[in-house]
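Posting this for the archive.
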Amino acid sequence: MVEYGPVTAVAGVDLDVPRGQVVGLLGPSGCGKSSLLRAIAGLEPLTAGQVRWDGQDMIEIPVHRRSFGLMFQDGQLFAHRSVAGNVAYGVQMARWSRQQRRRRVAELLELVGLTGFGPRAITELSGGERQRVALARALAPRPRLLLLDEPLSALDRALRERLTLELHDILRAAGTTALYVTHDHDEAFTVAHRVGLMRDGHLIQQGTPAQVWAEPADADVARFLGYSLSRQDGRLLAISPHAMRVLAAREGADGFPEGAAGEQVAEAVVRQMSFSRGRSLAQVQLADWGVQTAVVAPGLQLSEGQRVLVGIDSHAVLDFPAREAAIRDRN
């Protein structure tokens, strides 16, 4: 438990980080995920609970003796040191020999794709290059646990997405055990072997990225992950962003075309058009579903107010009362 005066930032968290795996800690701002990470690092005191590594209680162990690495969103690099000097900082503090330091720096710069950057000044680097240097510095002393707190949140989206893929490869190539804090579920799902979701200081759900996406613990988790919600006949449905597609313009009173297997076809009215990442999207109003986003078939030209036919993938719609009943039956 972590408390700031009368405010409880972390409570009800039981989390294991398996050796050699990356665990993503996901949740909205203010949910307690960064406070939990800082408590594990020893930067915040616990008012209750334990932090254990290999069975050893870490509470009384100072930060610098826990052998945990830290990486923050701003990198916190030393401007007066070169790239190599930054990467070597941790191993220098650990009193590695000059030859060992030089070998380890070269190894880490190659791992993060910055071979030959050693002599450069930090001020000469782009934002993405600085974050790679920060990662190399955190990995250099071979920490038994690497703690990453929103390491990419300060970068623009295109760079963040590219570095997310690189982080996935780098952490696995290094065999690093890591706890990765982020509010971006795409980032967590890409980097982590397993994901834990936090809300109001509590750990709500854990599982693989595929499990968490397919079976969100409740409607609030589904909404956070990007599902939209709709009430039908007293039932709460969560609709995946990929559940609906515009099949055709609705012309006359002809019958509906057949959808794909498991796909329901419904009539809708186009409310708004947009374009995102090479795809046309339509905000459509359906009688039973409210306003939803649907992907528009290539080549189909639509306008606001137009009647269309929408295919709804039943496998991409979660019925929460039905899921809760199934869970009760299993238990």
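The CA atoms of residues 51 and 94 lie 24 Å apart. Residues 325-329 have pLDDT under 50 and may be disordered.
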